[in-house]
Design goal:
The complex is a heterotrimer of chains A (718), B (166) and C (441). Chain A is of the alpha/beta class and 718 residues long. Chain A has 23 helices and 30 strands. The longest helix of chain A is centred in the middle third of the chain and has 17 residues. With 441 residues, chain C is of the alpha/beta class. Chain C is 43% helix and 12% strand. At the B-C interface, α2, α4 and α5 of B face β3, β5, β11 and α13 of C. The structure holds flavin mononucleotide, iron/sulfur cluster and FE2/S2 (inorganic) cluster (FES). The site of iron/sulfur cluster (SF4) has 14 residues of chain C, from α14 and α16.
Chain lengths: 718, 166, 441
């Protein structure tokens, strides 16, 4: 590490690493310098001129957002000249601004409003006409109001540099300059909404949130997105028990402020009118609403009856329910229903990976490490569609740290624009890997991420390949659902109990449970197998717990309305193993968290599951499940802790045929997604036909920025 | 999209004139040269240029909005540009522009009904010492008086105007 | 073609061939010492060439007047990257029309200057960036380039030196800002002409992110004669630190406006009365814009005894800029000129940074209203303050280029602005912004 640079800011002695920008050195020292266009991690612009400071011995005011610290530099951030300059800039900014704060969505959390309040533009001397331009709707999600726009280019950069989508640009010039979408009059993009959240003013607003409420009328609850395995933290804005918006502006959580369309906007399934609010029991062939008491009694009675005559049970757990719920469900199945016939929809071969890695620690990469790893290799996964946060992390790693990314994929993927790609059909992966061997072996370290196509034996072969490189290698098994990892870790498996402990007599697996036909009872929690395969139930008593009357629920004898992830407390485990906390944000009348349902049912069956509070179940998990011995208070405060992989052989029953990817895209989320009006409207909009130009033509859009923390110019190749 | 053989040849020279992998550099010249031939920048042209230069249509769009000589709307067969910047202004450039506008019966960036002539008030074109100046397509005309202007327009109308530059 | 009669008082050096028949043809060029300098240069070390340029005290003719030799010496010569030579023929500064003549009448001279630059830094590629409005020059310059290839002055193994150099034309499409060197480089890369953050300067990170020599067309055109006759000879033509001759573009209320080549330090009065034949219609001189529209205006008193070189004009807090000199007589409506000037900058602001984008637009609106007869006393102060709020605070020099002349007009001709107020037929209170807007058009 080079010696720190010593300088003085507002009379305070400050030290900073060489290359640190004055704006950041000041921030470290507790001296805020106002800025609009400067944004951590994005290319330097020096466009807004809000951050001007006075540097002794320099005649002109200097732009703090691009000025590196220098030895002996004396900076004034609050001198009369600086104050005057800020006022002047704000006065300029407000000339064409409509000043419609009372009706603007951003009112109350607008950076321009705050700046004017703090640094003052006083009374405007502007008496001329303002240019009016009509607001435009670019997609179901994105609206743009040009007069409010201050042209800080944050949106353009987050879309291009951050996401690699480059759907936004700048049109016209001078005072007529404005942000323009790639489809001419509409957007063809991921609809992630990052542009909206990064906008410091109310120029970009979202179709979901527009004119719904004022920021101060909401309560904010941080929880974990329920749509995919990446485990993004999403902060839900709640008013009267309803979710009004989602974002992650405080950058807490493993995702920073990243969210995809699902994390930001697809919370609306929660209030879909089709949500089940009463249990249903089949009477005379028809599902009829009944009270919880009747429904639970019906199930309990039947379960007890069947258990008494040694009936055969099958249980399918969910990949979206919490660890606590999964843990309790398998306990219920194994202890109360006396069966190992329990499974879940597996999307990756985790047991095979853990087995192949036995004997080593620290071989599973975390989400944070994907941003710092020197090199990464992605096999058979279209990350941008299926693993959005991982795609973002790897891209940011490449942008900020020049990480080398390698891709082996059967078709074009977005990473192609910056990665070294080898096209290889499914099954041809290992031949492709050999062509990369020499380069990979030269890397100081490597993280290998693999999709569902690598399963069973191939996983062992992959680990052997990793070993043969002679460098430290970590792995990520790319599972798909929000708690796929937790379902596996918590033993929703016929052959493995929580922590991948072998069970003496493995039970029926997922396909067997669904096709057996001769099971006496099947209990399906939070999953919709009927959407994928026919259910061979004849004389079977079927209980389904879900949010909606799914294809599966329609075939049930009893349907129990379950709470969504946004309506419960508990923990989930991300694809990269971080345990994070779900916090109850919303409430749907009549639905109950699955954990409550299990407890009530056990009680009704006069069985004791112990105290079934999420916290106490978690304690039990952390005491008994390998890898989950983590600090609860840390998770409780909203932070993520990685689980530690078990360190020993896994006596699993290889069943690679059961590994099936979820095949969700950015705009789908299985059955849940069908109930999101927002996702549906996007799917129906012209933007959904979007052919990713980057994937289709290999055009390199979106800039390769050099390390954005230096004054190095923003490198903008082709 | 197909262009004249001459233009195609120019394009292929153009694309080869930049360092390897820098075909994006050809965007602005290609747009201008194609506009010279087809009269405007159409959406089809945007996509064609994007394809040939290996960029996205948005990247072409951004460029079109920026450069004042690129026009999405069709211009007249003869685009008449009158400079009113200071050097022309002080020797009658603004009066000349107003004269042109009333004589042609069109305003700034408008086209005569017959599609023959379009008028534009422009910034300094580099004829300051020989002001006031106008350009007809790419031909400069210096020290233009209203009378001279009328003669030029008459020549455009009766077909006797000889275009010099292309 | 030339568009005005030369003056016998001119020192014709870089414009020496303009009046020759077929002046643009390579044979004309070769018959008049053409491509002698590159032969000489090929025998010289880069250091020696740069020393010669330094000795010539040649300063950039594009506007900023930066010493050319020094600029070339900043280019790293072992970066391991390719390097480029860029000729700035974007000539868009109002008042300036000399590069056009250089390219039309003597393109080989510019090409030879670029060649010498190329050899100095062992570059293999160069581009002549020509503004879109000069579209007619492209075939002319292309033809000259083709001739030079034919005779072995461009292409592979130039004159048996083993060194290759390719040259191309590249057109702009209407944007003053693309004359700013880093915006030009963005434009050359097929993008919007938005200036780049500096440092690094183009010498180090320029065209295609590589080391680059970027000079004005006239600057390059002066290089061959400097190598032929020596830096000291060139320097001796001008005044200390202001070497050589330069092309002055004279416009406005004079009898013989035109482009004239004169030594630096040429007396203003002599230019006005002898070279340009005095004021038109016997009017009195009111003001002079000495270096393109970005240069603050000088009053008739200020230009008395003025010598036309960089440093003398800078002493008057204006600048020699691009060599465009606008002569304004006693009848000139300064408010109208100020308005037209700011309209230009508002039209040409790229829009990247707030002070320039909003400042030029606001000033344009105030001056439009003022000029239409709706001015107020407080507007005069406001115009000055807004210009001050732009000055030194914009991303690139266009903001300054807009603020400086505005400040100049309002301070030096304040009385004319006040006289406008007296003529007002309405006050702002009587009217609505809509009416103002209509009136103003
Ligand atoms: C707004 C702006 C416009 C400019 N326009 C031109 C121009 O049209 N031609 C030119 O040669 N230089 C122009 N310049 C100056 C260039 O940035 C640069 O200094 C010059 O081309 C360098 O060449 P020189 O050292 O030979 O003068 C402009 C600068 C600014 C700030
Ligand atoms: S000063 Fe700012 S807006 Fe103006 S041209 Fe330069 S960068 Fe663009
Ligand atoms: S933060 Fe915008 S110019 Fe520095």
């Amino acid at each position: 590490m080079a010696d720190p640079v010593k300088l003085t800011i507002d009379g305070q002695a400050v030290q900073a690493a060489p290359g640190t920008l004055v704006i950041n050195a000041a921030k470290e020292a507790g001296i805020p310098i106002p800025a609009f266009c400067y944004y951590d991690g994005l290319a330097l612009q020096a466009a807004c001129r809000m951050c001007l400071v006075e540097v002794e011995k320099t005649p002109k005011l200097q732009v703090a957002c691009t000025l590196p610290v220098a030895e002996g530099m004396v900076v004034h951030t609050d001198s009369p000249a600086v104050q005057q300059a800020r006022k002047g800039t704000l006065e300029f900014l407000l000339t064409n601004h409509p000043l419609d704060c009372p009706v603007c969505d951003k009112g109350g959390e607008c950076e321009l409003q705050d700046m004017v309040f703090r640094y003052g533009a006083g009374e405007s001397r502007y008496r001329e006409e303002k240019i009016h331009v009509d607001e435009k709707q670019w997609s179901p999600i994105v609206f743009y109001d040009a007069p409010r726009c201050i042209l800080c280019y944050r949106c353009v950069r987050i879309c291009g540099e951050g996401l690699g989508v480059s759907a936004l640009g700048v049109g016209n010039r001078g005072a007529a300059a404005e942000i323009v979408p790639n489809g001419g009059d509409h957007l063809e993009c991921d609809e992630c909404g990052a542009c909206i959240d990064i906008c410091p003013v109310g120029a970009l607003t979202s179709g979901t949130y527009r004119y719904k409420t004022r920021p101060w009328e909401m309560e904010h609850v941080g929880t974990i997105c329920t749509h995919c395995s990446n485990g993004c933290k999403t902060t839900l804005g709640i008013r009267n028990g309803n979710i009004i918006r989602a974002n992650n502006r405080d950058r807490s959580g493993i995702n920073g402020e990243f969210l995809c369309i699902k994390g930001r906007y697809a919370f609306d399934f929660n209030e879909h009118p089709d949500r089940l609010t009463m249990p249903l029991v089949r009477q005379n062939g028809e599902l009829k609403p009944v009270s919880w008491a009747i429904a639970l009694a019906t199930v309990a009675k039947k379960f007890l009856e069947l258990r008494a005559k040694k009936g055969r049970f099958g249980v399918l757990g969910s990949t979206r329910t919490s660890n606590e719920e999964n843990f309790v469900l398998q306990k219920f199945a194994r202890r109360i229903l006396n069966t190992n016939n329990i499974d879940h929809h597996r999307t990756g071969d985790l047991p095979a990976l853990l087995d192949a890695l036995s004997g080593r620690t620290d071989a599973l990469a975390t989400m944070g490490e994907l941003y710092t790893a020197k090199a990464a290799l992605v096999i058979d996964s279209d990350l941008a569609q299926e693993q959005p946060l991982i795609a973002f992390q790897l891209r940011a790693n490449w942008r900020h740290h020049k990480a080398h990314v390698y891709v082996v994929s059967p078709g074009p993927v977005r990473e192609d624009s910056y990665a070294e790609t080898v096209r290889a059909g499914l099954g041809q992966e290992f031949e492709a890997l050999e062509t990369l061997r020499e380069k990979l072996a030269k890397e100081p370290e490597l993280t290998i991420l693999f999709g569902a196509a690598i399963k069973g034996d191939a996983v062992r072969r992959l680990v052997a390949f990793g070993d043969s490189l002679g460098i430290p290698v970590k792995y990520v098994c790319l599972v798909d659902y929000s708690n796929s990892r937790g379902a596996s870790d918590m033993g929703l498996l016929p052959d493995l109990a929580p922590g991948y402990e072998a069970v003496p007599e493995p039970g029926l697996n997922y396909d067997q449970i669904l096709s057996d036909g001769a099971l006496d009872a099947v209990w399906i929690v939070g999953t919709n197998p009927a959407a994928r395969q026919p259910l061979a139930f004849s004389n079977t008593f079927v209980v389904v717990q879900d949010l909606f009357l799914t294809e599966t629920a329609r075939q049930a004898d009893v349907v129990l309305p379950a709470a969504s992830a946004y309506e419960k407390t508990g923990t989930v485990t991300s694809v990269t193993g971080e345990i994070q906390k779900l916090s109850r944000a919303a409430k749907t009348m009549g639905a109950k968290p699955d954990l409550d349902i299990f407890q009530l049912l056990a009680k009704e069956m006069r069985e004791d599951l112990g105290t079934v509070k999420p916290e106490s179940v978690f304690r039990e998990i952390s005491e008994s499940v390998k890898g989950y011995n983590v600090s609860f208070p840390v998770i409780e405060t909203g932070q993520a802790i990685p689980t530690y992989p078990i360190n020993g052989r896994v006596a699993f029953r290889p069943e690679p045929e059961l590994i099936r990817p979820a095949e969700n895209t950015l705009f789908t989320s299985g059955t849940l997604g069908r109930y999101s009006e927002m996702l549906n409207s996007v799917l129906e909009s012209p933007g959904a036909l979007y052919r990713d130009p980057i994937r289709d033509t290999g055009i390199r859009v979106g800039s390769v920025t050099q390390e954005t923390q230096t004054t190095a110019p923003v490198d903008k190749p082709q | 999209m197909t262009f004249s053989p001459e233009l195609e040849e120019r394009f292929s020279k153009l694309l080869n004139s930049y360092p390897p992998g820098r075909t994006r550099s050809a965007v602005v010249p290609m747009l201008l040269y194609a506009q010279d031939e087809i009269g405007r920048v159409s959406q089809e042209l945007v996509e064609e240029v994007a394809r040939r230069c290996g960029v996205t249509p948005l990247q072409v769009d951004e460029v079109i909005g920026y450069y004042s000589m690129l026009h999405r709307k069709p211009l007249g067969k003869f685009h008449v540009q009158v400079c009113t910047n200071i050097c022309c202004q002080v020797v009658g450039g603004e009066d000349l522009y107003h004269h042109a506008s009333s004589m042609l019966g069109v305003g700034n960036k408008q086209v005569t009904n017959d599609g023959l002539i379009s008028l534009e008030e422009v910034e300094c074109m580099g004829a300051c010492s020989w002001a006031p100046a106008i350009q007809i397509n790419y031909d400069f005309h210096h020290r233009v008086t209203p009378e001279r202007f009328d003669q030029l327009i008459a020549a455009l109308r009766d077909g006797s105007y000889k275009q010099r530059a292309s | 073609m030339i568009y005005n009669e030369p003056s016998p008082l001119e020192t014709k050096i870089i414009s020496q061939r303009w009046t020759m028949e077929n002046s643009a043809a390579i044979d004309t060029y070769l018959a008049t010492d053409g491509y002698v300098a590159i032969r000489k240069a090929l025998e010289m070390t880069p250091e020696a060439i740069i020393e010669e340029l330094k000795a010539s005290s040649l300063r950039g003719r594009g506007g900023a007047g930066f010493p050319t030799g020094l600029k070339w010496s900043f280019v790293p010569r072992n970066s391991g990257k390719p390097s480029y030579i860029i000729c700035n023929s974007d000539e868009s500064e109002p008042g300036t029309c000399k590069d056009r003549l250089l390219m039309e009448n003597d393109p080989h001279q510019m090409i030879e200057g670029m060649l010498i630059a190329g050899w100095t830094i062992k570059s293999n590629k160069g581009y002549v960036f020509i503004r879109g409005e000069y579209r007619y020059l492209i075939p002319i310059v292309d033809k000259a380039i083709a001739e030079a290839y034919e005779r072995g002055y461009l292409g592979k193994n130039i004159l048996g030196s083993g060194w290759d150099f390719d040259l191309y034309t590249h057109t702009g499409a209407g944007a003053y800002e693309c004359g700013e060197e880093s915006a030009l480089l963005e434009s050359l890369e097929g993008k919007r002409g938005i200036p780049r953050l500096k440092p690094p300067f183009p010498a180090v990170v320029g065209a295609f992110q590589c080391p680059t020599i970027l000079n004005n067309c006239e600057t390059f055109s002066a290089v061959p004669v400097i190598l032929r006759n020596g830096g000291a000879w060139f320097a001796g033509l001008g005044t200390p630190k202001n070497g050589g001759t330069r092309l002055l573009c004279i416009s406005g209320h004079i009898n013989n406006p035109g482009v004239y080549e004169l030594p630096l330090g040429f007396p203003f009065e002599q230019l006005l009365n002898e070279v340009c034949g005095g004021m038109r219609n016997g009017k009195k001189l009111k003001a002079v814009i000495p270096g393109g529209s970005s240069a603050p205006v000088l009053t008739a008193e200020e230009v008395q005894g003025l010598l036309l070189d960089y440093d003398s004009i800078a002493k008057l807090k204006s600048m020699a800029g691009s060599g465009g000199i606008v002569i304004l007589d006693e009848d000139t409506d300064i408010v109208a000129v100020a308005l037209r000037t700011i309209k230009f900058y508002a039209h040409e602001s790229c829009g990247w940074c707030i002070p320039c984008r909003e400042g030029t637009t606001w000033l344009k609106k105030i001056l439009t209203r003022f000029h239409a007869g709706f001015g107020q006393q407080s507007d005069i102060e406001l115009i000055g303050e807004l210009a001050n709020n732009m000055l030194g605070r914009t991303f690139c020099a266009l903001g300054d280029a807009a603020a400086m002349p505005t400040t100049g007009f309002i301070t030096k001709f304040r009385s004319e602005f006040e006289a406008y107020l007296a003529k007002n037929h309405l006050t702002l209170e009587d009217t609505t912004p809509e009416l103002v807007a209509i009136e103003a058009h």
